[in-house]
Amino acid sequence: FSANALFFKFAVxxxxxxxxxxxxxxxxxxxxxxxNELVVxxxxxxxxxxxxxxxxxxxxxxxxxxLPLGTGSLxxxxxxxxxxxxxxxxxxxxxxxVAVTTAAAALxxxxxxxxxxxxxxxxxxxGHVSHDSRFYLLDLAxxxxxxxxxxxxxxxxxxxxxxxxxxxxxxxxxxxxxxxTSAPMSxxxxxxxxxxxxxxxx
Length: 202
Hints:
Largest sheet: 4 strands, antiparallel
Radius of gyration: 16 Å
Number of helices: 4
Helix content: 10-25%
Strand order of the largest sheet: 1-2-4-3
Number of strands: 9
Structural class: alpha+beta
C-alpha cells in the first residue's frame, strides 16, 4: 500500500514463491543489503529509491520512496519472470550502460545472458528511466550470486520445491567480492521458480 509518497510492502509468501514467510522476510532484508552496497559504491548516474526494513511482531515490512516512474519506464531486466527481457543494448543512453557495467564490476558480478539479452545483474533486477531521465535500479533482492541454488538442503519444510527455498540463499559482501574469488561471479539469471518454468527458453 502507499501513503505519504512512500510504498509499504509486508514480506509474506502469499503467492508461494519463496517457500515460507521466513524466506520472504529474508528476501526483504536482502533488498536492503543490496541497496546499501550500491549506495556505498555511489556509481555516477545510477539512482535508487530510499529504503528501510522494519521488523514488527515477527513480520518484516519494507518501505521505499515512490519514484517518478510510469508505463514503459522499464528498460533493463525483466518484470515478468523472463518472458520479456531488456538488456544493456536496450538502455536509452550511454551513461546508463556505463552506470550498470561500472556498478556490476564494483560488486564483482559477471556479465551473462537471459533470453539472448546481455545483463550484468540478475534477470529480475529492474532498471527504469524516470520522467526526469534518471536511471534507477529496483528490486535488488537477488543482486548477489546464489549458493548451490538447486540443492535440496536449501528447501523450506513448507516448500514443495527446493527451487523455492533457493531464492534467498545468496552470497553476501564480501562473499561475492575478490576476497573470495578473483573471477567475477554470475548472479542466477532468474529466480529458481522461474528458471524451472523457462528452462527451455533461456
